[in-house]
Amino acid sequence: MKTYEYDDRYFRKQHCAVSQTAIKLVVLHSTEGPTAEGGAITLSGSSDVSAHLCAGEGVTYRIVPEWLGSCTVQEPNDWTLNIEQVGFAAWSRNKWLQHLNTIKRAAFWTAWWCKKYKLPGRFRNAKALDAGKIRGYTTHAQLSLSKWSSSTHTDPGPNYPLFGKVSFRALLLYYRGRIAAGLKPRQAA
Length: 189
Known about the structure:
The structure is a single chain. The protein is an alpha/beta fold. Helices cover 30% and strands 16% of the residues. It has helices at residues 36-45, 93-97, 100-116, 126-130, 140-145, 168-180; strands spanning 3-4, 17-19, 25-30, 53-55, 60-62, 68-70, 80-85, 136-139. The strands form two sheets. A six-stranded mixed sheet has the order 1-5-4-7-3-8, with helices on both faces. A two-stranded antiparallel ribbon has the order 2-6. A hairpin with a 4-residue loop joins β4 and β5. The longest helix has 17 residues, at 100-116. The termini are close together.
């Protein structure tokens, strides 16, 4: 898995980061742009927005290190890890599935972080989040609908393939098994 670290030659600019507390939630986003490098440059060069990772078809860029919070979801910035995926909230499910390698990268990192931070591999919608079930993973849209964030974002959109036979959830389960068997980030494809 090709991953460019935040301190590689790509990102020497200032990025927005906050102090990190205990990780509780992984949040999925869409870049609203066509390339991972373009998304990463925007997220690493801005003083008011950032993310931990920006995943695309053939590459993942690490922008903010895990030990810092990124400036992505307003109030929960200090207890979330955030993955931007190349894509648009307006995409259809079929269009998202044409970018399955991007979803695979996001699923791998979500599974990795769930194991590392002892988070349940459970999706949390706004209702669950409002009920205090804030450990697991969610989308920016669901977090925005909850009481936890004043953000108004709707990404990665209503057609993002969270569930189904070919979906983020199916890939997450696949990678959880592979990670349990010893798969590491540098070995993942």
